[in-house]
Amino acid sequence: MSGRLESKVAIVTGGASGMGLATVRRFLLEGASVVIGDLNADNGRAVLEALNAEGYEDKIRFTVTDVSVEDDVAAMTELAVDTFGRLDVVFNNAGIGGAFGPITEIEVDDWDATFNILVRSVFLGTKHAARVMMDQGEGGSIINTASIAGMGGGAGPQAYSAAKAAVVSLSKTTAVELAEADIRVNAICPGVIFTPLMHSGNEEQAEEVIAEIQPLSKRGEGSDIAGMALFLASDDSLFVTGQEHIVDGGLLANGPRLIGRLHNSRNLHRMAGMGYGSSGQTATYKRL
User: Fold this and answer.
1) Which DSSP letter does residue 148 get?
2) What is the CATH number that goes with domain 9-285?
3) Is 160 a catalytic residue?
4) Which end of the chain is more exposed for a tag (fewer CB within 10 A), N or C?
5) What is the pTM of this model?
6) Choosing from 56, 160, 276, 285, which is the catalytic residue?
7) How far from each other are the two terminal CA atoms of the chain, in whole angstroms?
8) DSSP string covering 146-184, please?
9) Alpha carbon distance 8, 30 (integer Å)
């Protein structure tokens, strides 16, 4: 039986760990060919070696990619087309936790670095993916990792929250612009997702905080984001575009209780190393 992504070609940035790696594995399992773009060369090569050993050598490629550099993003896109002949799906997922601290103390360079990785990367990924997809004339799907932190005040650090709000807005704007070419653009807004980058010794504390404010008892994993990404990448979502898809265990539904508790637990973002749904690339770009 064919998978839901049979014959499709996908790019996943930040795909060497965390939510990105979970998505890479799910895409491969569903029949896609995948290019991983990640700044962490060691992680990327290790993942490539592991996937090759699992029998995916003809369907997986890795390239070292700084998603804030246009030449890198262009080269990553070209690799997908040159290797697999086309491009159907791009998951702009790479990210960082970004500048952290009171607004009165954040340095301009740290603020700019946060926006470069979280927003410029989505702009560049969308730009180069759209060019290829428009030339192909067969539509496509662009998926951007945003966050619940970008959907209201108090749920994340200032720079990170503002950048993720920009990702949601950019996703909606480009969805309208690219609809004529049948290119769908959607954002995924994770809640707190536990990834391998979680700092040892802090996981238990993070779980205690989340247990107080998250209605579902299940803790968020990369596989939860991969499932949503699969839906948006597949033909099951052909009538879905310009939306933010919340995957947060009910956190936002908890309303004022959520915001108040997070406001009183500002160290959760730093403590957990999760960035409220940032990709598994957090520590690659900048240590929190």
Assistant:
1) G
2) 3.40.50.720
3) yes
4) N
5) 0.91
6) 160
7) 44
8) --GGGGSTTSS-HHHHHHHHHHHHHHHHHHHHHGGGTEE
9) 10
